Amino acid sequence: MSKYIFRMGLFLVTIVLFFFYNIEKIKVFFLTNSNLNGLICFFLIFGIVLMFRQVINLFPELEWINSYISEKNKKTTSVKKPKLLKPIAQIMKSQTGTLKLSQTGMRQILESIEIRLLESREISRYFISLLVFLGLLGTFWGLLETINSVGITIKGLDFSAETEKLFLVLKDGLEKPLSGMGTAFSSSLFGLGGSLILGFLDLQSSQAQNRFYNEIEEKLAFFTKLSSHSDSSQLSNDFAPAYIESLIETTTENLKKSSAGIEQQSINQEIIAKSLSEINHFLNNSISINKEIKDEIKVLSKTIANTSKK
Fold first, then answer.
1. Is residue 33 part of a domain?
2. What does the pLDDT read at residue 265?
3. N or C: fewer beta carbons within 10 Å in the chain?
4. Count of domains observed in the chain
5. Which has the higher per-residue pLDDT, 231 or 201?
6. Distance between CA 23 and CA 18 in Å, rounded?
7. Measured in Å, how far apart are the chain's first and last C-alpha atoms?
8. Which DSSP category does 73 fall into?
9. Is 297 within the bounds of a domain?
């Protein structure tokens, strides 16, 4: 597990060095819309902490199962009680002697652990999608400001005025559209960049959780093999109460949460598909509006040039 923490830390150090090397440019980008960009950075930092926490929480779980297998700390309370391995802990409480598992019991425990791991991954992937959404939100926000400012500038031009005053009005009016474009591009930069950072960390976190799952499966296989040589009546007497108390309860609860999450995910996918369609339509309209604005500015420039010649 340590190598995954090392990779994540090394990646973050690289990103921090890049930020410090380009601190002046990034500061300018950030200040174009400090409120939205600050919100993006807040969720980015929160997501980074969450993904590191997901990997770090695997260490006490492995320490607990290893201490039980080695039987050095089996009867002590120095090792923190596990959360992901709670079904195994409940079975150990109800059994005396060596832990004995059947094939069915092993599969039930592994399914329960897998569901718990998937729940933690869903939270981290939500933050990745959230950063992408905030970046797109800032993009459309900036485009709307640009279009609105250009319209106000064109309406405010007075061609009967002197050429010098006309140029000054045009110069002042173009500041707001340029500010809107800065908002659009900066928020998109921070949002997409943050999602890439969380995406890499999520990849390492998923690999660490898969490694953890495989190690637990190997350790449980050891107890399952031992149980095949035990007396069947003793196995049923030891395992049945724990199975009823822990496995059925936790598995049922997690399956309900998983089914609710799947239903919510399907609803979210429909909403995202609809939003993407609307975004595509909006971008097409924005492109056509920008072309019209360029044409109007060209005509305006020619008119100003002709006026100055006269």
1. yes
2. 75
3. C
4. 1
5. 201
6. 8
7. 78
8. S
9. yes
